[in-house]
Amino acid sequence: MKKIWIIHNSLHGNSEKISKQLAEGLKDSYEISLDSIKNINPEELAKDEPYGLIIAVRIVAFSSDKEMLKFFNNLNNVITKSISKVAYFSTHALGWKKFFIRGMKKALEKVGCIEEVCPEYLEIRLQGAEGPAREGADEKITEFISTLKEFMK
Q: Top-level CATH class of 3-151?
């Protein structure tokens, strides 16, 4: 069974909750590991040689989570076997997304250890900075799980 890591850097628990929902939805098709970047380091993840990686990115002050980007850059420095499939999702309380999409795609394009990035992403808008997710999030998550199952083949 293909190994997929789901990593997050949740502040108020929203990214972690969504990561767990994704893990639950994918566990019948893939071997899933899920953790916070506070608990693992890039070397540990690289040793596991995952087939896929799903990244939870918080949008903070109109940009992607700097800690997650640093983690990813460090992963790029230590990984020896490329990650075949990478997908991402975001949580935010703002009414914009195009700026984030361009920034996240640019960041992932700079990472040499990625073979393919999922063309679709999941965006969950929160009711406020601390959440919870706005109505309709569960349906979006369910749709994204289907997208991931197809993409990760």
A: alpha beta
